Amino acid sequence: MTRTPPARTGTPRKRAERSRLASAGLHLTLAVAAVIAVFPPLWLLVTSFKPRNDAFSTSLVTHFTLANYTHVVADTEFLTWFKNSVLIVGVTTALGVFLAATTGYAVSRFRFPGMRPLMWLLLITQMFPVAVLIVPLYNLLAGLGLLNQPAGLVITYLTIAVPFCAWMMKGFFDTIPVEIDEAGRVDGLNPFGTFWRLVLPLARPGLAVTGFYTFVTAWAEVAYASAFMTGEENLTLAGGLQTFVNQYTNDWGSMTAAAVIIAVPAALVFAFAQRHLVAGLTAGTTKG
Amino acid sequence: MTVAVRVRRALGTHWYAWTMVAPVVLVIGVIIGYPLVRGVFLSLTDANEANVERNIGFNHLPATYQFTGLDNYKAVLTDGVFWDRLGWTVTWTVACVSITFLTGLALANMLNRSLRGRTFYRLALILPWAIPAFISVFTWRMLYNEKNGILNKLLAGGGIDAVPWLNDPTWAKLSVIAVNVWLGVPFMLVALLGGLQSIPGELYEAAEMDGASAWQRFRHITVPGLRAVSSTVILLSTIWTFNMFPVIFLLTRGGPGDATEILVTYAYRLSFVDSPRNFSESAAWGVLILVLLSAVAVVYRRALRKQGEVW
């Protein structure tokens, strides 16, 4: 940062210039904010390598151990929960991206009766509180025999993720020139062919964002997962983690190790998608 | 033109559009439409655990609950609990959204200039977003632990008495807000940073030529330039915070007592935690929450329209 002092006192300071003091203040503020942001996850990671009984010691790792990890993987149902979560989240993401893409494309390209109500429906669905739906949904799933079944949660998660994702996909499709569709039609493709072969490949960043959003929503969902899945072997990760620390047990060591294993895939997916994320979030919602 | 012909013609023109949206409409219709109608219906009855249709062993018991009209709503609205919870939910939402937004705005402005270590700061500051919320909440519970948590140990090192982070009503309220702000700042930061970067630099240069001060530039270029992004993120964030189930549920379970219980967690408690499970009252709470949120969205949208936003 080169510092050029203002030529005359009284001239307003330019944007690119700041005094040494202001510079230090800026770095100090950002550094404090960064420490606050990073500390909890970092502390979680540190704690997971401590022996169980030292979980709350303030020192850094003195006796490095992987015991928490081996305990979680070998002696608890963790792997089953992990498998449940991967299955549910995987299916939800695949289906969710596909449904969001077709809906987003239809809303972006065609003017059809029922389009405006549909847009409103997609927006309003996001406001539905878990609380108003959870009991009837519980009864509905019980009636269909879908309680404690992965399929039940998949369908539920689709209704949370798809409206928002369809809204985002519409924003992405709006940025793809309509001329491409027209060229496809001239070459004899029907609307589905145009969508599938021409437009969808161009919307890949959008698909990545939608996939990410669906993945994270389903991976981290707590309320439905705790209400609909019971019995150790049916839990997902969000439900399973609650069994380590509750009113009866306080196994913070296992909790931290399990938490780290859960957080890593999510953080990796996030790292890939984050650049596109906000463009998608805001494009979808402001252009409606 | 007869109806049949018109329908056939509409089908001919629009069938592919309708086919593409059909799965979503169907899924939303079944999974949200049905429970919503059913929820509204339940809220008009006296259904609870003891009188709904259920199976005990091989015996099938038919439903015996009755239609009671608006009794639940009358009971809920005249009971102090609802207004207490509503007051806290509004406080919680306003506090969380405003603190999150202002923090995000300040940090975005700091990051939106040439600065050594910019990428590092940016990555560090969005880290809380990358980790599933329930993991972060559990981590905070560990940090907040009254006897052994690191926060209190650090305070003890400075000779300060242990703070009952989650066990005292007032502290618990501050603690849940702090965690929610911690979780929400990255989203605001990234959204506002995107907004800042889309403001053309020439505007600032022109303002500098005209001798505008830093505050004037912020007030007359940055603020209007961010209006579209801000209005979107504030609305989204308000809706999300109002319904923020996981933070409260996993951090305090609404406790101590019901000090931190917001409307959604209380409604959940009525039908899944309390015994006997009171489905009808819970449904009435849910319907009231929905009405409140819709009102907020409509009013907000009106306000935006008045300012000339097209949304």
TrEMBL record, chain A:
Intracellular or extracellular location(s): Cell membrane
Entry-linked InterPro entries: BP-dep_ABC_trans_perm, MetI-like, MetI-like_sf
Transmembrane feature ranges: 21-43, 86-107, 119-138, 150-169, 252-273
Swiss-Prot/TrEMBL keywords: Cell membrane, Membrane, Sugar transport, Transmembrane, Transmembrane helix, Transport
GO BP terms, alphabetized: maltodextrin transmembrane transport
Keyword Transferase: no
GO molecular function: ABC-type maltose transporter activity
Residue ranges of every copy of the ABC transmembrane type-1 domain listed in the record: 82-273
One Gene Ontology term, aspect cellular component: plasma membrane
SUPFAM superfamilies reported for this sequence: MetI-like
Membrane topology recorded in Swiss-Prot or TrEMBL: Multi-pass membrane protein
Family per similarity comment: Belongs to the binding-protein-dependent transport system permease family. MalFG subfamily.
Name of this chain's protein: Carbohydrate ABC transporter permease
Classification of source organism: Bacteria, Bacillati, Actinomycetota, Actinomycetes, Kitasatosporales
UniProtKB/TrEMBL annotation, chain B:
Major subcellular location class: membrane
Presence of the UniProt keyword Transmembrane helix in the record: yes
Cellular compartment(s): Cell membrane
Keyword Transmembrane tagged: yes
PROSITE patterns: ABC_TM1
Transmembrane parts of this sequence: 15-37, 86-108, 120-143, 174-196, 226-251, 282-300
Membrane topology label: Multi-pass membrane protein
Domain ABC transmembrane type-1: from-to ranges: 86-300
Record Pfam families: BPD_transp_1
Keywords recorded for this protein, A-Z: Cell membrane, Membrane, Transmembrane, Transmembrane helix, Transport
GO CC annotation: plasma membrane
GO process terms (BP): transmembrane transport
Record-stated family: Belongs to the binding-protein-dependent transport system permease family.
PANTHER family reported for this sequence: ARABINOOLIGOSACCHARIDES TRANSPORT SYSTEM PERMEASE PROTEIN ARAP (PTHR43227:SF7), BLL4140 PROTEIN (PTHR43227)
Name of the protein described by the UniProt record: Sugar ABC transporter permease
Species of provenance: Streptomyces sioyaensis
Lineage: Bacteria, Bacillati, Actinomycetota, Actinomycetes, Kitasatosporales
